[in-house]
């Protein structure tokens, strides 16, 4: 299946399941439900669900085995963006070309919408009565990689680094948590369904995911410099205005581009240890450093 066709397929698949779940909620807190829906269904590439399904396809798994994982990781991603946009964090008024959740619904409702989407992620994951062992593995992976040891810890490090000169090693650690951890979770939740005897494949996928996470973030930093607000869907140059340490500010724009492409190539090389067809995962790594938003 072609890369773009697969992306479109999984976007429709995950969006349909997200909408069913949100629509099933009662209307006791109608404003909160509306804000959750807005934040979750605001568009976006669905890159993390793509990685869940692409990994599943490479491993010969049925998509029904990872549907809940794909929805869960998108809920976590959506919640993180809602909170990230708030004045206490990056203070972004635009998200995907539209008002961010706190601008449209107010800060209190935005905070609650993010909280509720975070818990909805684990509601998705726990809704798997047929394979409790897989459920436990996925809950453990996502809770760890979205929390202190992963995304939240990385965001805290990012805030602490504003206005400071940080070295490459610190920045790589920061972004491996802030951005890379959730990308790792996307790949590893599907890979967790592997038999324990297939540790070589699991380790190769883990290496791939870590490299892709780094490449993705470096390219995000590049786009913040060269991107167009109308295409990015958020204000270009926001990292500079917040005095954030970025790969272009540390290495220069050209070196940052080179590092992104080199890291994406390393991700592709890691897949050589996987015996099955990993073409979609390989194309995603290259897509990371070619995209315009």
Automatic annotation (TrEMBL):
The keyword Glycoprotein does not apply. One of its GO terms (molecular function) is (2E,6E)-farnesyl diphosphate synthase activity. Its cofactor is Mg(2+). This is Farnesyl diphosphate synthase. Pfam families: polyprenyl_synt (PF00348). PROSITE patterns: POLYPRENYL_SYNTHASE_1, POLYPRENYL_SYNTHASE_2. The keyword Magnesium applies. Coiled coil: none annotated. GO terms for biological process: phospholipid biosynthetic process; terpenoid biosynthetic process. InterPro entries: Isoprenoid_synthase_dom_sf (IPR008949), Polyprenyl_synt (IPR000092), Polyprenyl_synt_CS (IPR033749), Prenyl_diphosphate_synthase (IPR053378). Keywords: Isoprene biosynthesis, Magnesium, Metal-binding, Transferase. Its EC number is 2.5.1.10. One of its GO terms (cellular component) is cytoplasm. It comes from Anaerobiospirillum thomasii. Belongs to the FPP/GGPP synthase family.
